[in-house]
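User: Just a sanity check before I run the rest of the batch. Below are the structure tokens for the first item. I only need the designed sequence back.
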């Protein structure tokens, strides 16, 4: 898909109310493009009441719009949008279910992980931010003839992020 710069990014209205935060436009911004690939898998066996669902995606954005921010020695922050390349994102999600029928427990296990790379500029230096999030969970569900259900699924997760600039 395309990522069009908006009018505020091309030529914002001058705001004199906050002289410590200046936003500049960039009429040279190019249109960005997001390239996606998505795969999914579903399998449910009715007689065994077992199901597996999984999906994964990956995207790369060329000419993404990021901010170039500089802070001078007086504390004035100037921000201007610029095009950057190599922004990436990914996601994986999977779930397994094993049922035992109405008025019995249904077991669920899940895994989800995602992450990405984003680029911007701080005080003229290129900055690359990376992140990863992972969570797992196990749950139990009790159903009564599709009238009501009680579901509990605790999850535990881990988040990690880093930046090329300190």
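Assistant: Here's the designed sequence for the first item:
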């Amino acid at each position: 898909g395309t990522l069009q710069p908006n009018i505020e990014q091309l030529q914002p209205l001058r705001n004199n109310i906050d002289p410590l935060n200046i936003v500049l436009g960039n009429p040279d911004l190019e249109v960005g493009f997001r390239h996606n690939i998505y795969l999914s898998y579903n399998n449910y066996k009715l007689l065994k009441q077992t199901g597996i669902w999984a999906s994964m995606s990956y995207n790369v954005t060329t000419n993404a719009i990021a901010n170039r921010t500089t802070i001078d020695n007086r504390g004035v922050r100037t921000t201007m949008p610029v095009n950057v390349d190599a922004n990436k994102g990914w996601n994986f999600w999977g779930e397994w279910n094993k049922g035992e029928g109405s008025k019995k427990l249904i077991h669920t296990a899940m895994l989800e992980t995602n992450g990405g790379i984003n680029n911007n500029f701080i005080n003229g230096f290129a900055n690359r931010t990376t992140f990863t999030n992972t969570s797992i969970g196990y749950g139990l569900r009790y159903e009564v003839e599709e009238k009501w259900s009680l579901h509990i699924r605790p999850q535990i997760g881990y988040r990690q992020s880093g930046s090329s600039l300190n």
